[in-house]
């Protein structure tokens, strides 16, 4: 949960209007520590730990956006899944999250150059809260982006990438 940026999300949440709540999906050994962090920041009534969710479509349907300021994620399928549900996404930039190298900032998603920058995270979420047209545009583009990246297409693209890298290293002729 730390690697996914939850401490930064909690700090940003404190700066957002009290009507904004956070649902955290996923099972982790860090949940108890994150609950304590919530309590220390007075956020217990605004943060809901869902644990492992068997039907993520229910969580996506209930969400207004996905915030994923990850510190390290090779591709972040959660971002692609959320986009498939037409959710506006705030995600770490390409230096931290692989899928972001395929996203255009302000067009497909809102990209964070530094996921540790709580101010930037706060401003990104605030943009979504205050700009209905931006949300609609991002949701529309998210759906277009996700629909062009089905599993078989991604598999072919990744295979090509791996083969290209092997050729560059001289381990494949």
How widely separated are the two ends? 41 Å
Percent of residues in helices = 40-55%
Proportion in β-strands: 5-15%
CATH topology: Rossmann fold
Second CATH tier, the architecture: 3-Layer(aba) Sandwich
Please state how the strands of the largest beta sheet are arranged side by side: 3-4-5
Uncertain residue ranges: none
Quickly count the helices.
7
Rounded mean pLDDT is 93
Radius of gyration: 17 Å
Q: Secondary-structure element sequence?
A: HEHEHEHEEHHH
SS content category: mainly alpha
- Multimeric status of the protein: single chain
The CATH class turns out to be Alpha Beta
Under CATH, the homologous superfamily reads Glycogen Phosphorylase B
Shape: globular
Major beta sheet summary: 3 strands, parallel
Number of domains: 1
**SS elements, strand count:** 5
Descriptive labels:
173 residues, Rossmann fold, 7 helices, 5 strands, globular
Describe the SSE topology:
Blueprint: H1 6-15, E1 22-25, H2 31-40, E2 47-51, H3 56-62, E3 66-68, H4 77-84, E4 89-92, E5 110-112, H5 118-130, H6 132-147, H7 151-169
Parallel strand pairs: 1-2, 3-4, 4-5
Helix pairs in contact: 1-5, 4-6
How does this structure look, described?
This protein has 7 helices and 5 strands, in the order αβαβαβαββααα. Helix 4 crosses helix 6 (132-147). It has one domain (6-169): Glycogen Phosphorylase B (Rossmann fold, 3-Layer(aba) Sandwich). A 3-stranded parallel beta sheet has the order 3-4-5, sandwiched between helices. A two-stranded parallel ribbon has the order 1-2. The mean pLDDT is 93. The protein is mostly helical and 173 residues long. It has helices at residues 6-15, 31-40, 56-62, 77-84, 118-130, 132-147, 151-169, and strands at residues 22-25, 47-51, 66-68, 89-92, 110-112. Strand 3 (66-68), helix 4 and strand 4 (89-92) form a beta-alpha-beta unit. The longest helix has 19 residues, at 151-169.
């Amino acid at each position: 949960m730390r690697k996914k940026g939850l401490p930064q999300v909690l700090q940003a949440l404190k700066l957002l209007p009290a009507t904004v709540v956070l649902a955290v999906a996923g099972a982790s050994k860090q949940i108890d520590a994150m609950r304590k962090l919530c309590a220390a920041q007075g956020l217990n009534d605004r943060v809901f730990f869902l644990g492992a969710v068997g039907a993520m479509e229910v969580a996506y349907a209930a969400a207004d956006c996905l915030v994923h300021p990850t510190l390290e994620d090779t591709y972040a399928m959660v971002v692609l899944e959320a986009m498939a549900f037409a959710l506006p996404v705030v995600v770490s930039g390409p230096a931290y999250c692989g899928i972001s190298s395929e996203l255009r900032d302000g067009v497909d998603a809102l990209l964070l150059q530094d996921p540790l920058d709580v101010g930037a995270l706060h401003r990104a979420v605030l943009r979504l809260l205050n700009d209905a047209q931006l949300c609609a545009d991002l949701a529309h583009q998210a759906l277009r982006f996700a629909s062009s990246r089905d599993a078989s297409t991604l598999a072919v693209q990744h295979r090509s990438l791996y083969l290209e890298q092997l050729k560059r290293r001289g381990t494949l002729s």
